[in-house]
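Q: What does the assembly look like in three dimensions?
Context provided by user:
Components: two
Sequences:
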Amino acid sequence: MRLAGKQLGVYAAMLGIVGLFAAFFFYPLYLSIRTGFVYDGRFSFYWIGRTLGNSILTGKLLNSFLLAGCTTAAATLLAMPLALLSARRAFTGRGALSVLALVPMILPPFVGALSIRRLLGQFGILTLCLERLGWLDLSRQAPPDWTGAGFAAVVAMQTLHLFPILFLNLTAALSNIDPAYTQAAQVFGAGGWRRFVRIVLPLMRPGLFAGAAIVFIWAFTDIGTPLVIGYDNLASVVVFRELARAELTGRTFGLVFLLLSSSLVFYAVGKLVLGRPIGVDSAKASIAAEPPRLGLLGTIGAWVLFGGVIGLAALPHIGVILTALADTWVGTILPERFTLEHLRFVLTQPETRTCIINSLRYAGTATVLDIAVGAAAAWIIVRKKPWGGRLLDTLLMTPLAVPGIILAAGFIAMTVPGSTLERIGPLGNPFWIIVIAYAVRRIPFMVRGVSAGLEQIPETLEQAACNLGASPLRAVLTITVPLIAANILAAAILTFAFAMLEVSDSLMLAQLRVHYPITKEIYAQAVSANPDAPHIAAALGVVGMALLGGAMATAGLLMGKRLGAIFKV
Amino acid sequence: MMSTEIAIRGVRKQYGRGNKAVAVLESIDLTVAPGELFFLLGPSGCGKTTLLRIIAGLIAPTSGRILLNGSDVTDTPAEKRDTAMVFQNYALWPHMTVLDNVAFGPKMRGKSTAYQRQIAFEKLRLVEMEAYCDRKPNQLSGGQQQRVALARALAAEPKCLLLDEPLSNLDAKLRSQMRTELRRLIKASGTTAIYVTHDQKEAMSMADRVGVMHAGRLAQIAAPRMLYQSPAGGFTAEFVGQANFIKGRVNNTSPLQIETAAGLLVSNADSRFQVGAAVVCCVRAEDVMVLPDEDGN
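A: Here is the predicted structure of the complete assembly.
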């Protein structure tokens, strides 16, 4: 009876989690696509058909796929050698370089895009340098735009921002491969490249999929970067512009449905092809993994590779910092004068200070919600292994496949003027819908982070405590929680950091300036005509970078290579 | 199948440098004859797996040479040594079927697809696993995985077979069954094999010769019976079989007589000792007869 009672508690908790999820994830999703299926008051595929029949829109959808594919491929190519070095070789400074490789994540790509234009734009630093060196004659030729025709610039910015996710994932996946598998292949005659292609790559497939899926969907639905770079030929930008219109039609939601179904189909196919678990008996390595130590030349090579990639990825950050500190910077390679005025301005002016405080409030509350729900869910799934536990796990991962703008569209539909929830809508006080939107989309990271910790702590440790007289709750609090505290904290920091970086929900759900978070304020500044706006936007970016840099470094130090486990889907 | 002589000359392995240096192998010299099933027997941490990995080329020795049929392979990378290893956890690649696992070795050695399949099936038939060729390793029991791992190693047609405690993951009953089976299969292949174990029963029942390892050194190399009956030192005597040890002092060399706390013991062993030398008498458990005390005291 007691056992049955305990199980009842577990199922009640599961039901509660599913209920919350249904109310704040599936219901808004349903709303975001429902209107797309209503025409003339009846259920109809009219809007879907119209969208599919519109060659311009389908062209943009295909272009979005192409863009996301290019970004994912480029990020994989960038991250793979770094991950191989980090996980499979020992060299001086490996730990520090692995943490530095995460630096690009502390800046939303669209903020970096602001500065990359200053670096690589028509009258950017590169052009000026080349002119100074005499390699370009601007009196004879038009200044070239090194960012390419928009598409390339978006891919570049997204790649530089997102490759650390793949780096973390691939490092974790590589660390989990039993060295005996590659050694066996070596003994049977497989050289380095063959071992990588035939053994390592297939075994790291689920990890690769996990990272690639996040990067692909992020790139597929990103609106900040293309908007700032001014590249409109994407489905996500069309959806954003449509949703920003005062009057929403079925056409908008038809497009939303296509974007959502594309994401879900990609995710499902990817999971089926790449993400299937490999039947490894044990995640534990059967032999001690002592990675070969690189010699002097190898170490220098590793430093050059890491340094090159980190340096390249840090260009936008350097640009943002320089812009924030520049007093006047027109037509010169470096600012003529430096000032702290812009930073002082954003920290003291009520509007900008409010947006920083708003971001901290939104991200902080979302993180607390995620810890409560995510940690409980992870504990139920890993420790209690109830019937339907795997389904709950899959359910909690689905937000990764759902574009932020679509969920935001659902929340807009949920809180339209005239509805009962109007007061917490974008035109009322959207605190709770922003918090919930942030929390829902980041809950997978919390569940994965805590699950990774729980899976590494043998259940027998809790059982030993119970055996010596501790109640189950006390065993969890005194044994398990201290052992996985680093995982919970690291997942919380990461959740917080990603919430602070959130663009889609922020751009769409915060409509009144008093509710703007940092990202929306940066966007507003970036598109404003104020001559000081780029400097103010950059100064806000610096504040965000400082907050997130600290958070990411703490998470990296707390979890090390296990940080990658958070991004498993 | 080729039969290869394996020669190990002065192999030493040390980890760390300076004050932190730890030697795990000290001047190992050993020759394994072509077609021989040689066992490295010793307790955990004695260096036997390290030595096996050095032979495979997975670990580089600090000094010393490894020779296969007289040719020095010390600096040859593992993939070019033509050895095949059966790992302790079998290391069957989980993403490949049984057939793909077994065909991997010939594939890497550039054999034709037809030959890869032919030899894979042949070896799977040898270990009675051909019916499982389409399964993935996680669909097999421990004993079946062990057989596939052996088939994979044999299919590579290696110069020598290296087995790292291949039976340690099996239950006692299966382990006992597999001992006879494994010896039969290895001997049938004719390959020179080095087998690492800490289980003396395994070594004594399967080996042609056994090298007992202790603290990074080879304490004794002998045939199992010889090892049991004439251990060269206290460690071998204690590690192999059960024995009683009685300390004493030689008081006569012909016949050899030892004065002990249990009284005067007489031995048939050839005396290597001088009168007055401190010695330890080793008496195997089966050599101790227990009789009723007829005096009743």
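Follow-up: Chain A touches chain B at residues 178, 180-181, 183-191, 194, 198-199, 202-203, 205, 278-282, 286-287 (CB under 8 Å).
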